[in-house]
Amino acid sequence: MASFQDLGLREPLLRALEDEGLDRPTALQAAAIPVLRREGNLVARASSGAGRTLAYGLGVLDRLKPRAEPEGGGGEGDEGGETTPPGTRLLVLRPSGEDAARTALELVPYAHALDLTVAGSGGGWGTPAGQADVLVATPGEVLEAVRTSGVKLEGVEAVVVDGASEISALGGWEALETLFDHVPRDAQRVVVTAESSEGVEDLVSRRVKRAMRYPAEAALEDQAEEVAAAGIVGYVPVNERDKVNVAARLLGGGGDDAAPVLYCRTDERAAQVAEALALRGFAVGDADDPDVDVAVVGAHGEDDDEEGSAAGTAISFDVPPDEETLRARHSGEFTGFVLVEPRELAHLRQIAKRAGFQAQPAGIAGEEPSPSAAELRGYRGQLRRAIREEDLAAQMLILEPLFEDFTPIEVAAAASALLRRKAPPPPEPGAAPAPRVPRTTRAPAVGSVDAGPPPSAIARLFVSVGERDGVRASDLVGAIAGEADLPGSAIGKIDIRDTFSIVEVPSDAAERVIQSLNGTTMRGRALRVDYDRQRRTAGPGGPRREDR
Questions:
Q1: Which of 98, 144, 480, 513 is most buried by a 10 A CB count?
Q2: 494: helix, strand or coil
Q3: Buried residues in 428-442 as b, exposed as e (16+ CB within 10 A)
Q4: Among 216, 309, 194, which residue's Cα sits nearest to residue 263?
């Protein structure tokens, strides 16, 4: 197996990796880092658990040089090196503020090793966002900072879109497209997405030229043909803080002839888990020791265990980073368990599919003997279909802050209670069916309000105020009606997002609305109104710009 040293990383980064207990790259990191070090572009389909933050973080940071300082203190007449002005050099765009803050913290040890500064979402960083070398935030936050001159993007050397499908689902696509217009054309481009979609592929085709794809599309097709019933791997969704308790419960059953094997991401983590289990009374040791209750294996011990799970039940304390690791750990008739954080579920399902495994929850409750059993079965069937068919990555990001205070089971139970409370009662026998509501391809964003039926020929307009500004649908209707002399009944759907709104108006009145509202003030903000470019490949200003 390759090491980080084999990838040619600079010595400060290698020392930082050693301090973090990491010396073996994941499959994604091994493929991506050499490409990014050579300033190549990358499009990767990967989720949390594949090591995606370090894949692009190490690859891009390795080629960023510290800001040069003039010799002799920079006084007049000095002939030292040229000073690089402060400003964003690596821009990382994440779907939510919580995700951005976590990603920024993951990058800190490696950026600091190279004397580079980091700032993340929501403030609270020693370096102001506009002066940090590495800025990690949501597209909406960055765009607002650019508009207020708090952040300048002229010096950006690399831009990373980490979580493209989730950004789209959470309403950040318009801001993302606008930011690409502010980034230098020769800046390095990286797009990481959990799910491929038409919108993501359209962005890549226009904005990310000559990019390496991971995994290779041909390889994916070949894998799909080779998938066979290799076994079932059970997974247990669990928060990081509860992992030791859950692992202890799994190990407490006993009954195996051989000691179970618990796999951890690093040797340091394995030592910590082993100590925690020893405090609970487990005899912890090596896999070949007949007197132990459990063998805890780290990054190096995994290489020595060529039999994988043959020694005993395999439990992945950390989700495997790729399908090769999954196969090596979990093989045989019973493939063991994986402890997986909710945000890592999409990754586990992807690598399980490529490895030929079926991933399913480790525990399934039986049916209750009650008169409502049929209704409950139908309800569970709806949830199962949603789990298989819906894009859950964005929903995980919405719910993830709750997992700090509640277990995923409690959050799911609360969401289920709200969902069932709002569900309409079943129709009475013989009653006329309810009118059918056409399905849309995407659920409306928070703050979405229908202000009347849309006209037959409509135009979608972008308005530069949103929920964060305290704007309501009635404010937009009143402004359009008053300034553009357009009756409120002629205005279609109003979609209020975080930092902007989308308004549907009759096509023949669109120019009048744009001219009338541009420059006016709402909630203390000067309005910018234009055609919604997310739905238009060409508008009054011409076709979209295509970048490197």
A1: 480
A2: strand
A3: eeeeeeeeeeeeeee
A4: 309
- What whole-number distance in Å separates Cα of residue 457 and Cα of residue 443? 22
The pair of three-digit structure tokens given for residue 24, joined into one six-digit string = 């073996």
Per-residue H/E/C for 286-334: CCCCCCCCEEEECHHHHHHCCCHHHHCCEEECCCCCCHHHHHHHCCCCC
Spatial contact of 358 and 352, defined as CB atoms under 8 Å apart: yes
Residue at 282: amino acid letter: F
Query: Quick one: residue 231, left, alpha or beta (phi over 0 = left, psi -120 to 50 = alpha)?
Result: left
Alpha-carbon gap, residue 409 to 417, rounded angstroms: 12
Rounded Cα distance between 446 and 183, Å, is: 29
**Contact call for residues 393 and 166 (beta carbons, < 8 A):** yes
Q: How far apart are alpha carbons 11 and 113 in whole angstroms?
A: 9
Cα–Cα distance between 48 and 68 in angstroms, integer? Answer: 35
Structure tokens at 25: 């790259």
Q: Give tens-digit pLDDT for 133-179.
A: 999 999 999 999 999 999 999 999 999 999 999 999 888 999 999 99
Amino acid identity for residue 126 in this structure: G
HEC string of 90-144 equals EEEECCCHHHHHHHHHHHHHHHHHCCCCEECCCCCCCCCHHHCCEEEECHHHHHH
Residue 276 pLDDT > 70? yes
* Pairwise CA distance, residues 240 & 317, whole Å: 10
CB of 493 closer than 8 Å to CB of 459: no
Cis peptide before 361 (omega within 30 of 0): no
pLDDT band at 368 (very low <50, low <70, confident <90, very high): very low
| Pairwise pLDDT comparison (491 vs 545), residue with the higher score | 491
d(CA 332, CA 314): 10
Please name the residues in contact with 187: beta carbons below 8 A apart, sequence gap of 6 or more.
Answer: 156, 157, 158, 159, 548
Residue 121 contacts residue 105 (beta carbons within 8 Å)? no
- AA letter at 60: V
Confidence of residue 444 (pLDDT cuts 50, 70, 90): very low
3-state helix, strand, coil in the chain (%, to 5): 40, 15, 40
H or E element that contains 505: strand 501-506
Between CA 536 and CA 546 the distance in angstroms is 14
